[in-house]
Predict the 3D structure of the following.
Amino acid sequence: MFEVIVLFLGVSLLFYCLFAGADFGAGILEGFSSRKFREKGQKLTYDAIGPVWEANHIWLILVVVILFMGFPKVYTTISVALHIPITAMLIGIVLRGCFFTFRHYDPIKGRSQRYYTGVFVFSSIATSLFLGIIAGAVTLGRINLETTNFIQGFISPWFNLFSFAVGIFACCIFTFLAAVYLIGEAREEDIRRIFLDQAIKSNVVTVIAGGFVFIAAQMDGLDLIELLWSHPLSAACLVLATLSLPVLWFTLIKRNVIVPRLLAGFQVSMILVAWLWMQYPVVINLTHGEDLTLHNTSAPDATLQMLGWALIVGSMLILPALFYLLKSFKWNQEQVH
């Protein structure tokens, strides 16, 4: 049952990045769009993510539940050592959802719309940034469970160049996902062309940001290149993601709609799998003592058995309903158009 739980944990992380990450990216895209295009873009964004954006957080909830029940020491360590970026990320999620809703349902379309949009864009950037910072912090290895110093215990683990580089990379890759996904949602050719251009530009920026992650890792004393290439599967995933770039650019230039979506999802999946496999079975790298792994922090077998069966039965009930939700709203939008 241990393997089943780990599989659910990995898949939940992947789906959260692919779906919720694209939602965050849609907010970031608005901030970098021209004022002329922004109004049409806002309507398209709402049509694309409005009905189901809350459902995407089911994957984050699954991650939290699995860590809380199956790997309690990991949950405790992350919650305490990284409580500042976690709190900032959660505030961003709440603000983003509130102002996204206020902007759409406020009957007075006046100056308040600017504030709604401003907070929505800012919180989308902040949420993506701090999500990446958390990932960088558990990888870098500056979490110290033995210190009583506030700075070393609660600031140094995440307030560093590498963690912020990963956060910037997360912002870029989510923006890229959003641009590619929204290409297929656009019905007007001029809007579709804008999203195609944004997808190409954001992909180039993502590649540059990815390179900066490796540079920041070296500067902070983490040999990320060596770590990735020492794991054949991680190296293979990065090679595949890199080799798919020319194909992606070709399909974008050719104004394709479906293939870029598949390739974008493939690239993000390969990057995430490379990182997860590089870390496995370690979840948190520590400054002192034994790193926290999935093995040395797991709950008793009885708890894992109950959690595993709960995930299996729950997925059989929830996933078909989630698919039906997505299908229903998508069908309704197609009927409207």
The chain has one domain: 1-223+294-325. Strands lie at 282-284, 292-293.
